Task: inverse folding
């Protein structure tokens, strides 16, 4: 299970010591973050591309892949939130303006919420449009609502809006990471990108 | 209790008159033909909204039953406007050249209980194949309700040619499901 390594990493997290500056997220959090990032980065453009294709077997396949990855994002988000409930994230560097601290918090909670809401809206939409989700072609997920074409079309709009909102927040998130790393030159990005630990003392 | 008693009472005068209870008037508003296909492992259903059917069924003499069903394929609802256009196309039903699918029964046999099996020929897109319809018959409020399914292999009829012939994307097996509500023939009552 993906969640298991957490138990061993309590050692990093729970016991603050000056030997371990604890400026990094745990390996579990890092893994969950980048898996979700990869999945979202893949399935977002896929969603736009596939919806513009004319009906073909390829289109049906891509829709399935999109849904499978989307459910993956939902699962990763749930695991990430579970992790977050048991762990305090590493502290932000001192000297950050208050508005930035606040913005970071809003963006992070916003992303957790959107990572749940965006796939859920897709799942709801699939149920309403009468094409259920069978995860990886083997695990049938229950329909969340009954068949309702008009509602399905509405949910399609909701799904798109949520995803474009998520795109906007992710762009801000990435811009902030770049700003911190290259301009403020602090450890923000390194806490999520372990190989950037040049400035970190182990 | 009511459900059992009323049809039983209704049947009494008919049987006492020595006339078989044959059900042969199809009630279109209580009848339906739909289908379930599998796309990428997902069961997706659709409907045939336009059809005509001549069916005769007598639970006392099921072997004498018969059915002739014609489906106007342009009346298909495959789930979305885009899909509806697609399935009328040449690769699928080619409705311009072959507008009608037709089932004609050749025999009916009881399977025990309220289960029956009708064999017959199904013609779609210029191809005719033997098919088996298994169905149940229930008497409900003076009507006979036939509920059943005809499993078909779409590629035997060339439905979904070319690109679409890949059965990993759209499975070959399609379940055509039907429900026909039949009321008793008026001539039976007169006799």
Result:
């Amino acid at each position: 299970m993906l969640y298991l390594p957490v138990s061993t990493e309590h050692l990093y997290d729970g016991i603050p010591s000056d030997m371990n500056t604890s400026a990094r997220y745990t390996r579990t959090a890092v893994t969950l973050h980048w898996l979700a990032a990869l999945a979202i980065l893949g399935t977002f453009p896929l969603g736009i591309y596939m919806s513009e294709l004319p009906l073909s077997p390829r289109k049906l396949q891509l829709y399935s892949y999109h849904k499978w990855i989307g459910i993956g994002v939902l699962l990763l988000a749930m695991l990430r939130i579970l992790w977050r409930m048991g762990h305090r994230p590493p502290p932000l560097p001192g000297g950050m303006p208050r508005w930035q601290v606040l913005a970071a918090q809003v963006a992070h909670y916003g992303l957790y919420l959107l990572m749940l809401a965006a796939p859920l809206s897709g799942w709801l939409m699939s149920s309403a449009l009468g094409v259920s989700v069978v995860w990886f072609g083997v695990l049938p997920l229950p329909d969340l609502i009954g068949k309702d074409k008009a509602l399905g079309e509405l949910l399609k709009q909701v799904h798109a809006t949520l995803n474009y909102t998520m795109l906007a927040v992710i762009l801000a998130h990435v811009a902030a990471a770049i700003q911190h790393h290259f301009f403020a030159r602090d450890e923000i990005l390194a806490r999520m990108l372990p190989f950037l630990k040049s400035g970190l003392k182990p | 209790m009511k459900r059992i008693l009323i049809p039983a009472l209704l049947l009494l005068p008919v049987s006492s008159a020595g006339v078989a209870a044959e059900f042969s008037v199809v009630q279109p508003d209580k009848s339906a033909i739909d289908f379930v296909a599998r796309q990428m492992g997902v069961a997706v259903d659709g409907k045939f909204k336009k059809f005509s059917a001549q069916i005769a069924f007598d639970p006392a003499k099921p072997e004498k039953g018969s059915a002739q069903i014609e489906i106007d394929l342009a009346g298909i609802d495959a789930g979305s406007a885009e899909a509806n256009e697609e399935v009328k196309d040449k690769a699928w039903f080619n409705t311009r050249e072959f507008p009608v699918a037709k089932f004609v029964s050749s025999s009916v046999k009881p399977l025990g209980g309220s289960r029956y099996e009708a064999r017959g020929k199904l013609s779609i897109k210029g191809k005719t194949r033997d098919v088996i319809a298994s169905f149940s018959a229930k008497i409900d409020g003076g009507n006979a309700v036939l509920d059943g399914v005809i499993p078909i292999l779409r590629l035997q009829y060339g439905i979904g040619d070319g690109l679409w012939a890949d059965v990993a994307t759209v499975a070959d097996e399609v379940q055509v499901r039907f429900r026909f509500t039949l009321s008793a023939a008026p001539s039976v009552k007169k006799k």
Chain A touches chain B at residues 55-57, 60-61, 63-64, 129-134, 137-138, 140 (CB under 8 Å). The first strand of chain A starts at residue 134 and ends at 135. Residues 1-21 of chain A have pLDDT under 50 and may be disordered. The radius of gyration of chain A is 19 Å.
